């Protein structure tokens, strides 16, 4: 028996977390955390989630819960509610905000076996009067009259746009009766007999054995599966999933972007059939909640989904797989800024399940965790197919003749490779990175790029101000008159468009089928699917694309992969630029030679000696990451230090700057008191993109090796939020940020 409950309203109330309500006696024996209720809030009523019980009533009037929707099963299961609490604590937000994000604002009611049937027939006069006075009821009556057996399920009535209030009024008149309908049979929860899985290589078998041991023993281990591209990581986790199902445990498979990984969803479905649910942002609210219910009820035991699927209510969760765990797409970049990969580890721990992070190029964070013994490292060093990894050729762009002052990207080497590939009938992927791009200056003679002496990130070129700026610490200076390294007279601003490359290639190869896939091209309805279909079918000879084409597309006909200008991603002003570049290069290289014909890879750059490029040429991930981790340790970047980014934005540029300076000043004083070093508070500085949709942004970056004082600083910043709001400045707190 509980007299008081705490409720998270949906949607959350700004700057408020939970509200306390009284539980009417009739509900007190049944109400439980995770259940949905209807509560009064201000002058309205709202749906809310019960998060727990309150011991003491708050001061003032305490209102009562009006209705309980879920009984006896809570809508949000206990381990998911626990994950939400963890998320709120870690990401410095409210539990109400987390719940509002995962449950969405309007949750369609759980379909019941309730239905409506015509009852006592009204007289014609009564019906005519109804038509005049109560149009909605009249319409509801007519809809029901036209239904088979004059009966409709509650869901079908809602679908037909019949108002619930109208039905209630008709029930009150006795013209409609509430009936119980036979339930549609649920799909079977027994996994169907799987098709015989392919035979595994010894390395795959070792990895599977390690996972299955932990699943069977319910040990809840944590693994990093490092397998080169094409090494058959998927087969490993499918085998582990089969073992989990056999042990009557549920499975959650996270993918970075479901739109790009339908292939994986299809493979999982082919293996496990009807028991698979797929969650992604392309689902409408109704489909989404239909899937949620299938998962909640246990009729779907395997869930494949993007980011937010980490909150899926999988029953008896036994295995969590994070595919392509290094992918930045796991980081949610608006609203609730969480990292689904990190939450997956927590989710598995709370459920007592096994977690596997899989990648050809694990993130520095996960690799270090494996070195520290926090993950068990499993390795797949070979491809099971006849073809080894394709050779990678680095094309040095330094000191080449210019084309109207621009670097000449269609080099002789590229032309020769492309023409050869066209002659052999192979497909070519031409890749140009645009993610996180900010204009930088680079020396065309030696490839040197000015970087911040304090933060080691590439300086961003602000043309209007005529200055190079570090967007972490705001170090700024005029561009040097000559390259500091080789003395060549001028640095150049770089920026190339995919559209421009596509046009050039079309002009050079009029007989080839050239296509382009980037964010612009994908915006036309259906365009992305059409472009990819033609690409998969082998109708496209040359596909020019951005990161959209770099992952998840196994096209057998691709025998040449080209990275037009690797420097574009090397010079992203981010401490992860080197790691991201290597991941990208290996990913792109992995696209070539997946079929019967051998592949080749061409990477063009002004910095051929950069560790990311030399490592990519040797397919040497471990060599790269070892050096990269050393660099991070020296510079004090993650995983050896933690970052929290505080982004302030508003329409009044001066007000935002003033607020940012004030906040940074205050935090700096606190940092000194807490014994943190001088550079624990960096900035305020304008981020690479200063103005987004008319709002000016400034950033303060918190960085420290010692986590508790860092988190105390971040909480102090969060506490300043009401005051900032009064100044019309918005604060976004980003814990473990990915884009800065
Ligand atoms: Zn130079
Ligand atoms: Zn700096």
SSE blueprint and pairings:
Layout (H helix, E strand, L loop, with lengths): L3 E7 L8 E4 L2 H4 L7 E6 L2 E10 L13 E2 L9 H13 L4 H9 L10 E5 L5 H10 L1 H12 L4 E3 H6 L4 H10 L2 E5 L21 H15 L5 E6 L5 H14 L3 E5 L7 H11 L3 E4 L5 H13 L4 E4 L11 E7 L16 H12 L2 E6 L4 H8 L4 E5 L11 E5 L15 H12 L3 E5 L9 E2 L17 E3 L4 E3 L6 E2 L14 E2 L4 H11 L5 E4 L1 H4 L4 H10 L5 E4 L12 E6 L3 H4 L6 H13 L10 E6 L5 H8 L2 H15 L6 E9 L2 H21 L7 E5 L5 E2 L2 E10 L2 H13 L1 H6 L3 E6 L5
The structure holds zinc ion (2 copies).
Q: How would you sum up this structure, described in words?
A:
With 740 residues, the chain is of the alpha/beta class. It contains 24 helices and 31 strands. The chain is globular. Helix 8 (202-216) runs parallel beside helix 9 (233-246) and helix 19 (577-589) packs parallel to helix 20. It folds into 6 domains: 4-102, PriA, 3(prime) DNA-binding domain (GIY-YIG endonuclease, 3-Layer(aba) Sandwich), CATH 3.40.1440.60; 112-182; 202-380, Rossmann fold, CATH 3.40.50.300; 392-438 and 495-632, Rossmann fold (3-Layer(aba) Sandwich); 441-490, no CATH class; 642-735, 2-Layer Sandwich (Alpha-Beta Plaits), CATH 3.30.70. The model is unreliable at 184-191 (pLDDT under 50). 34% of the residues lie in helices and 21% in strands. The strands form 7 sheets. It has a 7-stranded parallel β-sheet, with helices on both faces. One zinc ion binds at residues 443, 445-446, 448, 483, 485-486, 488.
